[in-house]
Amino acid sequence: MGAAAGNAGAAAAAESRGRGRRPGAMGGYELVRSDPALAPDDVDLEAGPCGGDDPKRRGGSASPAPARQRQRLVSLDVFRGITVLLMIIVDDAGAFIPAMNHSPWDGVTVADFVMPFFLFIVGVALALAYKRVPNKVDATTKAVLRALKLFCLGLVLQGGFFHGVRSLTFGVDLQEIRLMGILQRIAIAYLLTALCEIWLKGEEDVDYGLDLLRRYRYQLFVGAVVAITYMVLLYGTYVPDWEYQTSGPGSMEKSFFVKCGVRGDTSPGCNAVGMIDRKLLGIQHLYGRPVYARSKQCSINSPQNGPLPPDAPSWCQAPFDPEGLLSSVMAIVTCLIGLQYGHVIVHFQKHRERIMNWLVPSFSMLVLALAMDFFGLHMNKPLYTLSYTLATAGTAGLLFAGIYTLVDLYGYRRPTLAMEWMGMHALMIYVLIACNILPIFIHGFYWKEPKNNLLRFIGIGA
């Protein structure tokens, strides 16, 4: 994950009738768009009650749009584009602005909102993509294949095949390849959420907010089971003592012993999240530059990387994957929460109803998250704790409601055109920038000496 830790792309799929287009968004994302052959009983659920007749939204034309024309929900792309921009900013600015870097352990910084924002918007988009599912088996097959493609792409991009800008190595030792990562986590969350939307929908009519709870009660039950399972494993799993080896200068191998023998611990060295990853994935397949290396316990320059203090704990150099197995369980919950926000778009046509049904749960989740953090269940991105899940999902809901109000309600699209474009090409941007493809390409062309490349001429340096 490197500097791109916790930065993600969005993945969703429009399964039915071959509808939609691929805007190049994260993870092969497809979003329902205009259907040229809408049935007479189809209504515009994505454009609000005005049917898109706002002159601002129609480029200044005062003539109303056709009643049955379906319009793309622009706020989805804008939200995702803002998240992509935030991802780029925290990657570049995090090294010298602590508030823009990932929190070394407990606590939340700006960078820690990027991954949940992408997962949230995946869920929102899935509710639109699966509004109609004529063939559940076919939709399931396509969802599984897309998740596998995204997972494999993550293995290639984050398994070590693409090197860093100053690390011109090639190839991957399969004995040490990183198995989990950003795109792999999104693939898992996408698949489970898509299956819930395909198979676990009720038939009840939706007139009020509480009707959503009844119609999608089985999805909410799945989310509750997932969250409870995570909590039981995190606080109930016994973590024994363990040891690991690292290669020091001159390829000298050093062994470290970490004393634990505890249950329910959430410290960097003795938590159940890391233990499960070490047991199931193997420590050699985990991320080698853990975020807690910047903590006060492990760095004299904290919150930046630095030399180890003389009394540094033995776990400071141990690998830890921030996109591991158990922490990815809670990522599913974030995606499921986004799915419920998408249901509001599907079932409510009035802007006021949509916004109110977003604001109430968003504020509720934020209040609950702050209360949990106050009583000791701290927000923690590497562990993806429940309080962190609620805080980031609540913030995503508020931000999405604000963007929807600005862009889709009042039609102020011109100020957000750049964000809209970035959101529609999120996967391409992620691969080119966050995975170092573009910087490496630029470094590959120089004048006489490698240091005389394009980056040097524009003032960034070699």
TrEMBL record:
Query: What keywords sit in the KW lines?
Result: Membrane, Transmembrane, Transmembrane helix
Question: Could you name the domain of life of the organism this protein comes from?
Answer: Eukaryota
For this protein, the parts annotated as crossing the membrane are 78-101, 113-131, 143-162, 182-200, 220-238, 325-346, 358-377, 383-407, 427-447
Low complexity: bias regions: 1-15
Record organism: Paspalum notatum var. saurae
Q: Which Pfam families match?
A: HGSNAT_cat
Q: What is this protein called?
A: Heparan-alpha-glucosaminide N-acetyltransferase catalytic domain-containing protein
Spell out the residue ranges making up region: Disordered. 1-68
Write down the InterPro entries for this protein, in alphabetical order: HGSNAT_cat (IPR012429)
Q: Where is the Heparan-alpha-glucosaminide N-acetyltransferase catalytic domain?
A: 72-195
